[in-house]
Amino acid sequence: MIEHTIYKEFIDKISELSDGIYPIITDLDNDLSYVPDKTADFFGFEAGEHTCFFEQLSSCVNDVDLPEYKQEIRYRLNGEKPDDIFYVRMGKHTKEYMMGFYSDIFTGDDGHRYHVLVLRNENTLPDIDPYTYLYGQSKFERDINGYIMENRSVAIIEVEIGHIDEFNILYGSNFNTAIQRELALKFIDMMDGSTATYYMNNCKFVFVVKEADRALAKAFYQKIADTIKSMYFFKCFKFEFDIYAACLILKDYDGDTSTVISKVEYTLDRAKELHSPDLLFFNDMVRFNGSSHIDIMKIIHQSVINGCDGFFVEFQPIVKACNGEIMGAEALVRWKKEPFGTVPPGLFIDWLEDTPAMYELGNYIMRTAISAASEFAKIKPGFFINVNASSEQLEKENFVKDTLAILKEYDFPPSQLWIEITERCRDLPISMIKKTVTAFREAGIHITMDDYGTGSSSSQMMLELPVEGVKIDMFFVKDILEEKKKQALVIGMINFANAADLKICIEGIENDSLESYLRQFDVTCFQGYHYSRPICQDELMKLLIKP
Known about the structure:
Protein name: EAL domain-containing protein
InterPro entries: Cyclic-di-GMP_PDE-like, EAL_dom, EAL_sf, Nucleotide_cyclase, Rev_trsase/Diguanyl_cyclase
Pfam family, one: EAL
GO molecular function: cyclic-guanylate-specific phosphodiesterase activity
Organism: Agathobacter rectalis
CATH class of the largest domain: Alpha Beta
Mean pLDDT: 86
Oligomer: single chain
């Protein structure tokens, strides 16, 4: 008999705290458990004291989870791993309730060791996804934060099944939900005390493997992949799943949870871009002077918030095609900060364009470019400046107003500003882009189509937007002297642009031979290293002054 009535009263009080918790206290020295009314009723036992109660409780455990239950309970009754949480499916009538086992051991003033266990019905909590019965993102974030605080080493594996959202169209409504639910049940069967699985969204699953190194993570991912592939035949249909997977080994980490999630998501995006069937590790991503790519992105993002600290603008001259005389320049943003050095814009512009910070950076580039161009124009009257517009800017109502305010501030003529629209803007509704572009045209600002021909949307945008010029990308110029297909394609672009009365700028002019070949065509401007690499404001001033 458990001598201390106060312990029983304490357990009874705990059971009243919430509908979803069921406590038990066990005198480990006598293998005697006290089961309060609510716990007994939920599992179908009599309330009061029981000997060998956990053997009786095993009758309520799902058959698949029974080996794990017996092993984990054995640990705890032996005084081992009392702080580790584990989960099994169990119940009185249906053995599908996901129950979390939360426990601790203390020594009473009678000298006996007592094991306090709280069973929590996880299905009654908002953490549980109602379709897959797995934990959701909020639970995942809390658990990761716990691992960080405890300085535990874990492998975080995120898996996405590609194109599964199309299954509803092909096979009927809710078909992809049925697949995900079936997969979730299989994943639950894979779990033990050292692993956990979570459902994020859009058929993304996250797995956490405790005390895992790279080899263990790869082995566990192979089990995941094999489980998914075992679903090749479902409801009379055959499938081949595209599986993308990313892994982060979390060890000795002192950052925040959001950065952990960003790192895993970034790696998963890279896996999809590469169409990689293998597990891609964040730890293998590109590094700059010892810092990971995602860490650099976070610092660059913060730089925008801090008044674009570390950013600067360089200028690449644009020359008359007929004689090489400098007529204008393109403004190109750069970022440099020690100890990282200079980070190429190609590595951060696309990423920043998906964030609201791009609008602030775009305004910084516009202001810096127009400020410098107003000085260039004092030396070279009519000097024009080309500035790239991001999709984040084009969708903002204030973009036109802010640009006109900058022009007025520096007394720079709108007719000497060319805004370059890129293929990256293709995701915006064409009506939205057209509205903004038309407003710029009405203000006297020119619009040109950058990277013309490099994407599937550029021709459509060219036809639907009131553009006045095109820039032919350097891709089409590289090796053009040896490749007849490129010659035919570039000639076709030039003929189209001239027929449409558009200004033409060809990028990528790197030597005399290219210049001589392309001068035979009716082209407005050239741009490339043959004339100058991107340079700072002072260096361009010297070029303009140079006789």
